[in-house]
C-alpha cells in the first residue's frame, strides 16, 4: 500500500536544478542569504519514538539509512540521492523523521520548477514544498504534521512565501480508501499545521478540478511588493490581455 503522503510532486532532477541555479544567478537571484537554523523534536508514537529534525545537511543525509518503504516517487536509493542533492542547494531544505539512523519520512523545500508559472516572477523569496512522504508504518501518527511544524520552527521561514500545489490525481485514493473530498480534508488539515492555507488562483491545472488547490504560507517579514508579485503569479491570466 502506498503511503498516505504520496500526493505531492517532487522535481529534483539534477539538470533542472542546475539550469534553475544558472538562471537565478544571471538574473541576480540567489543574492538572498538563505539562512538555515537546525531544529529537532522527539515524537512519541504507538509504533515507536521518532526524531524529527532539520534542515539537515547533505553529509547528515548521506550517513543515514533510507527506509525501503519510501517508494512514492522512485526507488529508495534514487530518492535518497535526490534528497542529498536538494539539501545541498542554497535554498534547499530537507526535514526528516528518523527511527534511530533510518529515515522514515521527510519533507522538501526548494525553488519551483523553472517550467512552472511560480518561477516566472524570479522571486528569490518564494519556495515550494515539493514533497512529503511517510512510510505506511507511521501512518496516522501525526508524522506529516510534525514534519511541517519543525520546518516552521526556523525563523528564517518568515522570510519566504511557501507554496504547495495540490492535484487530486497525485493522491493515493485507492490505498487510503478515501474519496477525493475526504482526502483533501486530511491534506488541508496537515498543511494547516505548518501554517499553509488555501489561496485562489487561475492556474489552468489547478482550476481543472475543484479538489485541486494552491496553498501557501506568507512569512511575517515578507514585504508588500513581494505579496503583490505573488498575487500576479496567482492570477497571471488577468495580465495577458
UniProtKB/TrEMBL annotation:
Signal peptide: none annotated. InterPro entries: AcuA, Acyl_CoA_acyltransferase, GNAT_dom. It comes from the Bacteria. Residues 67-150 form the N-acetyltransferase domain. One of its GO terms (biological process) is acetoin catabolic process. Gene3D superfamilies: 3.40.630.30. One of its GO terms (molecular function) is acetoin dehydrogenase (NAD+) activity. This is Acetoin utilization protein AcuA.
